[in-house]
Amino acid sequence: MQQLPKVLLVEDTPMLAMTYQHYLKDEPIELLTVTTGKEAMATIDEFFPQLLLLDLKLPDMDGQEVLQWLSSEHPSVTVVVMTAHSSVNVAVDVMRLGAKDFLEKPFDAARLQTTVRNMLEQHRLQHIVQQLKTFERQKYHGFVGSSLVMQAVYRIIDAAASSKATVFITGESGTGKEVCAEAIHKQSPRKKKPFIALNCGAIPKDLMESEIFGHIKGAFTGAISERSGAASLADGGTLFLDEICEMDMELQTKLLRFVQTSCFQKVGSGKQEQVDIRFVCATNRDPLAEVAAGRFREDLYYRLHVVPIHLPPLRDRDEDIIEIAEHFLKNYAAEEGKQFNCFSAKVLARFLSYEWPGNIRQLQNVIRNILVLHEGVAVEPFQLPPPLDQVSDTSETLGRMQQRVDHSAQNTIEPKAERISADNLSVVLAARVMGEIRPLAQLEREIIEQAITLCDDNIPQAARYLDVSPSTIYRKKQTWENNA
Fold first, then answer.
1. DSSP type of residue 302
2. Which SS3 state, helix, strand or coil, does residue 193 take?
3. 410 burial level (CB within 10 Å; 0-12, 13-18, 19+)
């Protein structure tokens, strides 16, 4: 059964609120009514309406304060402002703050019904457009990357975030499992509640139970006072258990009961406590292999493995490597007060040919190392730390790089249509050859550089439109730099 669109009416005059409810009684919507700005904010956080009918004059605050709050907390909510204090200036102000329409009191049933229908239809179409545009996202709650594999991860997070279902994240070390857990929390209705992360592999097993559940005074040697554990601290929010497969078997039994009942006891206490927690777990191991080896409880695995998310290694994200490297370069250059703003073609070629066993964390450390130890504008090969300084520049390495980039280029996401088109390139070519004949190599360079500019310096995208491999462009750029 399709869910009805949700509409929130904010009107502090009881008679007017009843009138508007009567006007909308036959509309296929779910309508709630509140009387103050604070009630509106609290209801929006829980009700998630598509449309807000907002009176500007409220008893506790001005409606424009609610609009300002919405612009940062719930920008997707469509707002129609209602006021008897109409003026052009007010209309301009509320539109600037994000309102989509303006109703001057008094208004009749037909005006309100038409406005509600139009705004809900507009919201529905905008939602469809946003869904279609999800593949264009290059950044998402701490992630950087526009590859297809990452777009799939973003969509799973979008779908799972609003649920209380447990999420089980897998992936190699350094792929961003904690970033993923935080993204789930930030995208969820629990985003204003605590996000508590606990690394099950970094805490001695004798202390792990106390870290999760807490302890009372005198529960064990050194327990000089009562202490709340992660379970209590995460109440209402999200508890992230990293490296869950490294948890001691005996504690796995207690965790299973906790996940099933949301109840626990502090170490040394006989008192049951209950909390409301969303569980997110992660491991860099194969959890099913750990179950088969007897190191991880099968019943706990199936209790936790409700929504699986696998984070791909960096070597499978060729088209993201340069985006991530440029992101770190920009951020660290600002932090360190350095002038670096780009990578030489040879450095980019090495980045694309390297396997990155440490994944994003290793790439992050490489960029940080360069920024701390060197000066310059463009990062050059001699500035690369080990083992990047030992990566071969032989034709064999470049050939392997070209195969990998060619494969990823087949799945490259289309850039925005306005950036570049065949017509753009035809105009560029015509402009270059009309009235004069010049060397083909010179024309080729100008066309490639123009394509890179039109694609906002995104070489893989420019390469796709030019129907060549990105590695071909990197090699040409390297040749041009060497001959400069």
1. H
2. coil
3. exposed
Q: How far apart are CA 418 and CA 422, in angstroms?
A: 11
Distance (Å, rounded) from C-alpha 195 to C-alpha 186?
9
- Token pair in block for residue 314: 């960096």
Q: Helix or strand or coil: residue 197? A: strand
Compute CA 270 distance to the chain's CA centroid, rounded to the nearest angstrom: 41
DSSP 269: -
Q: What is the mean pLDDT of residues 452-474?
A: 75
The pLDDT tens digits of the residues spanning 203-218 come to 887 788 899 998 888 7
pLDDT beyond 70 at 420: no
- Residue 223 CB partners (closer than 8 Å, separation 6+): 210, 215, 216, 217, 267, 268
Q: Residue 253 domain-assigned?
A: yes
Q: Please report how the helices 459-466 and 318-336 are oriented relative to each other, as an axis angle in degrees rounded to 10.
A: 150
- 124 versus 166: the higher-pLDDT residue is 166
Q: Considering only CA atoms, which of 30, 67, 68 is closest in space to residue 50?
A: 30
Residue in the block written with tokens 């961003």: 176
Question: Is there a single domain that holds both residue 277 and residue 196?
Answer: yes
Indicate whether 459 pLDDT > 70.
yes
Q: Which amino acid is at 111?
A: R
Q: Are 379 and 386 in contact (CB under 8 A)?
A: no
**pLDDT(129) > 70:** no
φ, ψ of residue 107 in degrees (nearest 5): -135, 155
Domain span holding position 328: 315-386
CA angle 50, 279, 203 (to 5 degrees): 145
User: How far is it, in rounded angstroms, from Cα 117 to Cα 399?
Assistant: 58
Rg (CA), the chain: 28
Backbone φ, ψ for residue 325 (5° rounding)? -60, -45
Cis check for the bond before 387: say yes or no (omega within 30 of 0). Answer: yes
Six-digit token pair at 29?
A: 């919507």
- DSSP labels for 110-166? HHHHHHHHHHHHHHHHHHHHHHHTGGG-SEETTEE---HHHHHHHHHHHHHHTS---
Report the Cα 436 to chain-centroid distance in Å: 50
Mark whether 155 and 290 lie in a shared domain: yes
**pLDDT value of residue 458:** 77
Q: Phi and psi for 37 in degrees, rounded to 5?
A: -65, -40
CA diameter of the chain: 92
| pLDDT beyond 60 at 97 | yes
Within-domain flag for 290: yes
If phi > 0 it is left, if psi is from -120 to 50 it is alpha, else beta; for residue 264 that is beta
Look up the CATH number of the domain holding residue 266. Answer: 3.40.50.300
Q: Are residue 76 and residue 105 in the same domain, yes or no?
A: yes
Number of structural domains in the chain? 4
